[in-house]
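Moderator note: this is an archived Q&A kept for reference. The question asked for a predicted structure of one protein chain; the sequence and the answer are reproduced below.
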Amino acid sequence: MANRLALSTSPYLQQHADNPVDWWEWGEEAFSEARERGLPVFISVGYSACHWCHVMAHESFEDPGIAAYLNEHFVSIKVDREERPDVDSVYMDATTALTGHGGWPMSVFADADGRPFYAGTYFPPEPRHGMTAFPQLLSIISDAWNERRDDVVAAAGRITDALTQRDKALAPGAAAPDADELAAAVVVLSPSFDQRYGGFGGAPKFPPSMLLEFLLRHVARTGDLDALVMAQGTCDSMARGGIYDQLGGGFARYAVDEAWVVPHFEKMLYDNALLLRVYLHLWRLTGNPLALRIVRETAEFLLRDMRTSEGGFAAAWDADSEGVEGRYYVWTPAQLIDVLGEADGRWAADLLTVTETGTFEHGASTLQMLEDPDDESRWQRLRDALLMERGRRVPPGRDDKVVAAWNGLAIAALAEAGFMLDEQEWIEAARAAADLTIAVHLGAGEEGDRLVRTSRDGLPGHSDGVLEDYADVAEGFLALYAVTGEEEWLAFAGVLLDVVLTHFRDGAGGFFDTADDAERLVMRPRDPADAATPSGWLAAAQALLTYSAYTGIPEHRSAAEAALGVVTEYAGRAPRAVGWGLAAAEALLDGPREVAIVGPADDPRTRQLHRLAAMGTAPGAAVAVGPVGSDVPVLRDRGLIDGGPAVYVCRHFACEAPVSSLEQVARAVQAVTPPHQSQAVSVPGGEMTTRAGDSG
């Protein structure tokens, strides 16, 4: 018989709807039940694509005996961390404080007021590898609750107080990073950079998307070759490794090894949106052909496999198929030969590092492409055949809920990439996702300006948007405005950022993750550090900075500068934690550069200049295009040159004389091009080359 979760809109919660555990969704009803029955609360947090969440579910939550004990001695709450990142953040802070590490599944025990007193992650059904068995843990906690309840409740209070005090100590105060501090961040990063395989630190390795964006902007502004080596080395290694889907495009969540060979096979929307933008910017900066291939294949993956019927982008693909992690993606030499024939199969095995012993499990291999194929047309033919054959396998499950923040990241990436590469379909996909966000996610609250975090099947979910939703959706709308010139996207971004300034400020220059009128948790989460996605705090700073460049509104710029003060505190000791903030600081140092293209929309020269401006490497440049008479502040009172389109560039509150030639525009929108590289920039109607030393 199905439990309460059968009525949930969350695919993850619905995965547990047939558990014998008497699950509750997060909410006051569950805590009221705990108070009425005098029981502790068990809070289990995970997400639909999480492999070890599935393992614990199969081992423990589907076990009738364990379920019966939970039902008798606890009130059990199941939480989708992707729907409720605020709840996840609070209890992840508690878990890491109590255990020194975190992860999912997250298992937290709390009193009826939600105050945690014990926490961990995965627990097996029997003692294993030094881990406590889950039934044993349940028994110990139940006994402590019944026999020493006052002590347990007191411990919960102390833990909550300690977490609250730690949060109060977080006050930005400092000025935004200057050039020396950003250079120091690169120096601090260098010792942790893996010279052989790229990335930072050892196994497991996660794509450092936000950090890569910082490094690329730093290279563009300074020409720093050390930063370029770290950025390009990491991007090249990931693109050639097993973490990248060599057949279908797109990146897995992380690699379990240092060489990017074996991924944790789940594919998340946010990773692929962020990395699509990183590889696009790497190609724009260096002309790297591998980066261009990854851009095209990842965009194809998003449009082919991640789009929902309503026009948004689904949250994730699972790691498992038929209950086995990675089965959908791995191959043996024999399987390749069966599909391709002897000669082509052995050629493909050699190209893709598919060995007889295997690089994964049970003699199977992940697919790597450590070198480019010597026959590209042959590879494309074989790739199509293998992709068709893989399509006959049982696919992993797809979490088809639409998360506002992650769709904002996808909108930004696809809009930029579509414009730079003249792929109109990508721009239309970005516009469709933006339309869905407006139609379904935006409109809550008395003023109609509040976001809901998720939707599914075109229906809004019940969770309020958090800071990252407002910031990342604003970022997507600003990018869409930059490439289309459609003013409504700038206006919608302004609406969202006004909500940020009104409801999320912490009074000390930073931001809370939840609004001032959101559900009260045991503490109000606030964290400037990036996680798998840019922190809401830093994403808000970036979006506010860009918006202020378009509008000239000083409040937005001042708020961005104040928010970036925390980055200064991290830059010299833990730059990996604030990559998005370091990237925003690079934009701030450059102005950010305001690039206004004024000209008739039907004049091909306007589009030429517009695309050339988009190809500029100036960090975080705000590009706008529109006709004479536009009411957008950055375009207002701008005229033509000799009756033709003109480009106006402003930096640091000062504007240069308008220009109209391709060569002049190219110089105006470049920062410092790396000295080893020239870049060919194609524009409709011609080609030009910008060379080292050109500067604006």
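Archived answer notes: The CA atoms of residues 335 and 459 lie 42 Å apart.
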